[in-house]
Amino acid sequence: MSLTDPAHDLLDRGHATIPLPTADTEVLAELRTQAAWFFTQDEETKVRHGSRDFNFGYRPYGRQYSISPDRPDMNSSFTYWADDPTKVPGHEADTVAPFLKALGAYWRVAADAADQVLTGLARHYGYCDDLEFRTSSYLEVNWYLRDPARDLLQDRHEDGHLVTLATSDGPGLEIETGGAMKRATVGDGRLLVMPGSVLTAMTAGQIPPLYHQVRNHQLERRITTLFLVNPRLDRNVAPYTAAGGEGVDIAALARTSGSMFGLPPAPVPDPPTA
Ligand SMILES: [Fe+2]
Q1: 124 C-alpha to center of ligand 1: Å?
Q2: Number of folded domains that form the chain
Q3: Model confidence, pTM
Q4: pLDDT digits (tens, 9 = 90+) for 168-182
């Protein structure tokens, strides 16, 4: 299997999957174990590990939605930006440090997979700009809540990033293929690569966003691990192809696309110190 396969699958089929080596599936399993441990603490403890603007660390239920603010996504979240645990309030406390350690270990796994995708796309488009995704992307772990009344735990939406690398510990994810929402069959030990609206802008529409939703199967527990891949946020980047896409401020789109889901602007990394 060549390194360019995920990129070709995105172009041919609109989504892709990436297999994880066995050692990396163990890193993912440890992350899920630590996530379950963190999220089953009391709310007061968890809130201490979230920033006031909800960009870093714990984000309670009710802050994020897919279509309408009166139908929040049925999950709380934890976000880990740019492989930097110090951005999480109280990061050294024993109520969060083991979880952050597991996030750091999984960061390498997810970033390697994202690198495969972006390297393949750069090769396909003859693209030379460095997207510096490692300083502008984040991991998000979603801890789903039980609600017997909801048919969908997240309503149909597209993500506002280049790609999302998604994996879940249970069924529920549905993706739009052939005009219909169908259960995503990703397979154990694989990441699903879902293109987002920033990639659509970068490719002048050649890769449309993958619409998705989460069906409620009344599971006892559901954990989703997402790697949200952004281009650099501090200055504009060139699109992969300019065909019809001239003048689009890709970085501004990536910084502000969370607003349609109730999220604050993405944090712009500090410039490197001399
Ligand atoms: Fe999503």
Answers
A1: 26
A2: 1
A3: 0.94
A4: 999 999 999 989 999
